[in-house]
TrEMBL record:
Belongs to the cytochrome P450 family. Heme binds at residue 424. GO terms for molecular function: heme binding; iron ion binding; monooxygenase activity; oxidoreductase activity, acting on paired donors, with incorporation or reduction of molecular oxygen. The keyword NAD does not apply. InterPro entries: Cyt_P450, Cyt_P450_CS, Cyt_P450_E_grp-I, Cyt_P450_sf. It is found in: Membrane. This is p450 domain-containing protein. GO terms for cellular component: membrane.
């Protein structure tokens, strides 16, 4: 009897092994080269170390040399296919979202930003929410808010730069961008709640690309707790704006009020409260990190490149000459800052704040002769085309003239704001903020670096010591 059950158990085990092997063979047919590594962890720790040491490009280049421009690995708990190059960018930005892939980020990012933020949505939902956001973020609407950005910038300089001998640039640029977001997008008055949000945001961002292990001592757990608190604050803010609208407040005063005021012809809301919360937090986190990073690296650039600094200063002083003393910048003034914006774009090419992003395959996808299985993540990066010498000759050289004729740059090669129908809706908002900030910084101060100006990615780009500079006032305006 015992021998019968032993034989039966042996046969059952062999059948299971045979079925498992068959499934593995079927599922691995046509997969890209590479290794998935250990379950859940895979190559995540090695990638984290490379990001922190600012060698992520080298780490990925070694993969490309070994496996080619497409390979499989495990990142942040998911089997992933890494793709790179211009064709990969085009594939990412022009694919039929909702049909073959979604813009779904890693679990840690999705839990922090929310699953109803614009980058997660597809098809009709994406268009509906994007159209709602663009009612406030389009240039015609943002024109009326240049003066508000100007006021925030002057107040920032008065509070944090004037009468100082040394400053750490990155923390101050984060403070600036956060305050502009609060003022322009949220209508969030200065006070304890705004200060609390400012303290919570770094904790949220720290968990952005963390391994999603929700234990009390993990970065992911701290980030989730910070996110829960910020969501509660934003919800309370939304309810305050509802009351103000009922009392006759202007629907154009900030992004939240604009979104709450939108109705269709049947008097139905075009964007839900949950979607407003998730998208406000998305813009809060994205703007806080990306714009502050670009401003920081522009200040770093001006300290290291006196020729570019002098040309930007000349352009900005020319604008000041034609304005009455103390008058705020206008939309027409921003239109004259052509060289300054070319310098900004070249800085974005060399130092894109966001290293890369993820998509999710909604079905088996055939790409470059390989199969990306349904449910797998797709990881793409910006640096590969930004540093391609066939697209940008002498790619390591700083050369703003590359952007004098943007039509000459091949499509899907310069992608700091993404591309296609899903290009970042806040691009114009970021441009205005950058130009206003640079105008006042270069016309009112000079600076020199104090020591180390190296940088790392954790996961977003930032100088190792916050970029400490010694500052000197240029003039009194």
């Amino acid at each position: 009897m015992n021998s019968f059950f032993t034989v039966l158990l042996f046969l059952f085990t062999m059948i299971i092994l045979l079925l498992t092997t068959t499934r593995r063979r079927r599922s691995s047919k046509g997969l890209p080269p590479g290794s998935l590594g250990l379950p859940l962890v895979g190559q995540s720790l090695g990638f984290f170390r490379a990001m922190k040491s600012n060698t992520a490009e080298k780490w990925l280049e070694q993969r490309i040399q070994k496996y080619g421009p497409i390979s499989k690995l495990t990142l942040f708990g998911h089997p992933t296919v890494f793709i790179s190059g211009q064709a990969a960018n085009k594939f990412i930005f022009t694919s039929n979202y909702g049909n073959i892939m979604s813009n779904q980020q890693s679990k840690s990012t999705r839990m922090i930003l929310g699953d109803r933020n614009l980058f997660e949505l597809v098809d009709h939902d994406h268009k509906r929410v994007r159209d709602a956001l663009m009612l406030f973020l389009k240039p015609e609407s943002l024109k009326r808010h240049v003066g508000k950005m100007d006021v925030e910038m002057r107040e920032h300089l008065a509070m944090f730069w004037e009468d100082k001998q040394e400053v750490k640039v990155l923390p101050l640029m984060r403070t600036l961008t956060f305050n502009i977001i609060c003022s322009l997008l949220c209508g969030f008055e200065r006070g304890p709640k705004r200060d609390e949000c400012a303290d919570l945001l770094p904790k949220m961002v720290d968990g952005w690309w963390s391994i999603p292990i929700n234990l009390p001592f993990t970065c992911y757990n701290r980030s989730l707790r910070a996110t829960a608190r910020v969501r509660k604050i934003v919800k309370n803010l939304i309810h305050e704006r509802m009351v103000q609208l009922e009392k006759g407040a202007s629907p154009h005063q900030d992004l939240i009020t604009c979104l709450l005021s939108i109705r269709n012809e049947y008097n139905e809301e075009l964007i839900t409260e949950e979607e407003i919360v998730h998208n406000v937090i998305f813009f809060m986190v994205a703007g806080y990190e990306t714009t502050s990073s670009l401003l920081t690296f522009l200040i770093r650039l001006f300290a290291n490149n006196p020729i570019v600094h002098a040309l930007v200063l000349q352009e900005q002083e020319e604008i000041d000459k034609n304005k009455p003393s103390g008058e705020s910048l206008t939309w027409k003034d921003l239109a004259k800052m052509k060289y300054t914006w070319r310098v900004s774009m070249e800085t974005l090419r060399l130092f894109p704040p966001v290293f890369g992003s993820f998509r999710k395959a909604l079905k088996d996808i055939e790409y470059e002769g390989y199969t990306i299985p349904k449910g797998w993540k797709i990881f793409w990066v910006a640096y590969k085309t930004h540093m391609d010498d066939s697209i940008f000759p002498e790619p390591s050289k700083f050369n703003p003239s590359r952007f004098e004729n943007q039509a000459s740059i091949p499509p899907f090669s310069f992608i700091p704001f993404g591309g296609g129908a899903r290009i970042c809706p806040g691009m114009e908002y970021a441009r205005i903020q950058i130009l206003v900030a640079i105008h006042y910084l270069v016309t009112r101060f000079t600076w020199k670096l104090c020591g180390d100006d190296s940088f790392s990615r954790t996961p977003l780009l930032k100088p190792s010591n916050g970029l400490l500079v010694q500052i000197t006032p240029r003039c009194c305006n």
